[in-house]
Amino acid sequence: MNKQELWDNFGRTFRDFDLESGIYKAPGRVNLIGEHTDYNDGFVMPMAIEKEITMLAQLRPDRKVKFYSLDYDQMVEYNLDSLEYDEENIWANYIMGVIDEIQKLGSSLQGFNLMFTGNIPQGSGLSSSAALEVVTAMTVVDLHKIKIDGIEMALLAQRAENNFVGVQCGIMDQYISRLGQKGHALLIDCRTNDYQLVPFKDENYQIVICNSRVERGLVDSKYNERRSECEQAVEFFAEKEASEITALRDLDLETVEKYKDELAENVYKRAHHVVSENARVIESQKALEADELKKFGDLMYASHKSLSEDYEVSCEELDILVSLAAEAGVEGARMTGAGFGGCTVNLVKKDRTEQFIKIIKEKYKKETDIDAEVYISNPAAGARKI
Ligand code: ADP
Ligand code: MG
After folding, report:
1. Which domains, ranges and CATH numbers included, belong to the chain?
2. Ranges for the GHMP kinase C-terminal domain (predicted)?
3. Which residues surround ligand 2, an ion (CB under 5 A)?
């Protein structure tokens, strides 16, 4: 639907109050490199994708908020003074969470109607939830003319997911959805929350995302297990080396290797992944800045190997997708997201993309009996008013 069609739909859905209105967008994202580094105070490097959520809204003269999900064809209504978790309409909680956090800042809001639609695959690790939070924040803040900078808004959207939705996510998803820029990835330091735009200069390449369509079943329990193994490693190194070590971020590979024989095998392997992955993110930033895309691709393959063998969060299907990419001569490929399913991210020459997708679809189906889904994207813009 184009802008006019969306406004026509909005007009049929809600009464016109002749008050401030606007239309906003926020994208999903894919993490290019830096996996399982965020909770180790390390680095991540996502980019925004050309899939997004679009939201239209208009203020109302009372305390009511009405949300219409175009994709689910569902309407809900609440009062600004009594926002509570909605067990039935889960999607509405992402929106309420953001409103709740804005109200916590002390801003006095008035009611509004909003309608939204999106094309980010949901629950596939491309962060449709962060896009929904960020686009809501853009919408509500702009309609009320509240002053809040990009970082503050990203952190507010993260708090909405932590506090209202109840998912303990890090900062990456909301940061990139809010702060991403066309033609750039974003290097985020998860210790300081600082970020830098990283140019993705070579227009001969694009990013191809392959969805394994394997449900990320084991994620929660394995995630907690990995976190605790990382904590064990930190405790060990803090005792052996220096009490200033508070996260795996503070170690280099040499130190990890030095204690290989003293560490439990799993703990060594987890530390090895995180420490080497942090180094790969920094190397990737340099490679992209120097326009050395092939080098960046090699780092992506190395990241996958480390996630699969050392961190042990891949699965057969993700490994197959990465092997098929290597077979097809693609420059870079790795699993992306927490693992045990979800997507791979691939660095592909534009003129080879069609061929690559054909190979993936055919051979993945043959080996797994699953139809992979494939999305193509250049590094896209972050949230904006349109
Ligand atoms: P992910 O963020 O990886 O896509 P999540 O489970 O964190 O997966 O978030 C997905 C949820 O976000 C959906 O179940 C839904 O509640 C909400 N959501 C995302 N996109 C939309 C949309 N276009 N319309 C309605 N709800 C959406
Ligand atoms: Mg999410």
Report:
1. 3-200 (3.30.230.10)
2. 286-365
3. 129
